[in-house]
Design goal:
Helices cover 65% and strands 0% of the residues. The protein is an all-alpha fold and 159 residues long. 26% of the residues are buried.
């Protein structure tokens, strides 16, 4: 199984990461600036449909109709998203340096565990920051947020 295939399979195993920075199909250079990290494409999506963390932030900001009064809370959400992207990019870069053929089944499982743990911790951070924003939103914004989250990743799966 190729390195890219393994990463895509890992991404599928972890499920849709939604707002948490997902695995990338191409590892970022460890010495690359932070901007490269947050611009990494979301893995698992076909090449033409990949969305960067920055694109997702922009899209969500517009979809959720974030008001100037909500920007401080929104900034907490975007910080969590960017931090999660950086963590996942680092893990992908580390794993990309390992020849998959040299890994034992136990090492492979431990790799999955490491990614799943990072995913879970990132989701906890994101949920906490998003909950603060959500509580400050108007009822109409909450309904929109509920729809955005219910529909994310499902519109393509149905077709």
């Amino acid at each position: 199984m190729s390195s890219v295939s393994r990463k895509l399979a890992l991404s599928a195993l972890l499920g849709a990461t939604m707002l948490v920075a997902p695995l990338t199909a191409k590892a970022a250079d460890a010495d690359a600036p932070a901007a490269a990290s947050v611009a990494a494409p979301i893995a698992g999506a076909p090449h033409a449909e990949r969305e960067t963390v920055e694109q997702r932030i922009t899209s969500l900001h517009a979809s959720l109709n974030i008001t100037p009064g909500e920007e401080a809370n929104w900034n907490g959400v975007t910080k969590a998203m960017r931090d999660n992207a950086a963590v996942m990019d680092k893990l992908v870069a580390e794993q990309s340096a390992v020849d998959p053929a040299s890994m034992t089944a136990v090492q492979d499982l431990k790799t999955y565990e490491k990614f799943a743990h990072a995913h879970m911790e990132g989701l906890k951070t994101l949920t906490s920051s998003f909950e603060i924003l959500y509580q400050a939103m108007s009822e109409a914004q909450r309904k929109t947020a509920d729809q955005v989250f219910q529909n994310f990743g499902h519109e393509k799966a149905a077709s």
